Structure formats: C-alpha cells, structure tokens
Amino acid sequence: MDTWAYEEMKSSSVKDARRRKSTATVLSNIVRRPGTSFSVAAGHAKRQTMHRLFEDEAVTVGSLLSGHNVKTVARIASECHGGLVLIAQDTVEFNFTNLKATTG
Q1: How many Cβ atoms sit within 10 Å of the Cβ of residue 46?
Q2: Closest Cα to residue 31, out of 3, 5, 55, 53?
Q3: CB 63 within 8 A of CB 13
Q4: What is the pLDDT of residues 24-40, one digit of tens each?
Q5: Residue 100 CA to chain centroid, in angstroms?
C-alpha cells in the first residue's frame, strides 16, 4: 500500500482501523489505474469491502474526508509559515453542445 494513502486515511474519523486501511488501499489502486472503473481499480474483494463501508450509516463523506482535511491543513501550515494562503477554485463550466461538428 502507498504510504500517502495510508497517511491521508490514518487521521480519518472512520472508527475501524481495518476500514481506514482498506480505504487507503482502494485509493492507492484508483490512483495507479486512472481511467478504469471503480470496480476494476478496487478489485472484487475491496469493492465488496467498500460497499459495506458505504452502506454503514455511521460512515459519512465527512468522516471519509476528515483525514485528508487534517493532512491538507498540516501541509498548508508547514508551507505558509503563518502567512496568507490563497486557495484558487476553478468554477469554469464548458458547454460544447452547440458545436455540431464535434463528436465524443
């Protein structure tokens, strides 16, 4: 398992350490296999594990992202040295439906 994924999940508020580790493994697999479906990237066993995790009402998007949020704040703090941090967000939307000659 990649260290970065485990480090991101380690601080997660998902209570079960096994679930945090499984989620880190799936995250790592997804990054290593861009363009594939979730099921292919995760593999059959981990897909089933993640299905059970997603079905658990105690697990929320917030709890899954909490470790990432903690690590992101730590990375920002280590780089900004108490200074200003500018976070840009791209809200551009593209609409190509009026381009009749375009396919795909």
Answers
A1: 18
A2: 5
A3: yes
A4: 999 898 899 888 898 99
A5: 36
All structural domains of the chain with their residue ranges = 3-80
Output the six-digit token pair for 8.
């991101």
Q: Which has the closest alpha carbon to 5: 68, 47, 52, 79?
A: 68
Q: Where does residue 68 rank: exposed (0-12), middle (13-18), buried (19+ CB within 10 A)?
A: middle
37-92 confidence digits (pLDDT tens) = 989 988 888 999 999 999 999 899 999 999 999 999 998 888 888 888 888 888 88
Contact between residue 60 and residue 14 where contact means Cβ atoms under 8 Å apart:
no
Question: If you ran DSSP here, which 8-state letter would residue 83 be given?
Answer: S
**Closest Cα to residue 56, out of 9, 7, 19, 8?**
19
Q: Which two tokens stand for residue 39?
A: 């099921």
CA distance 78 to 56: 35
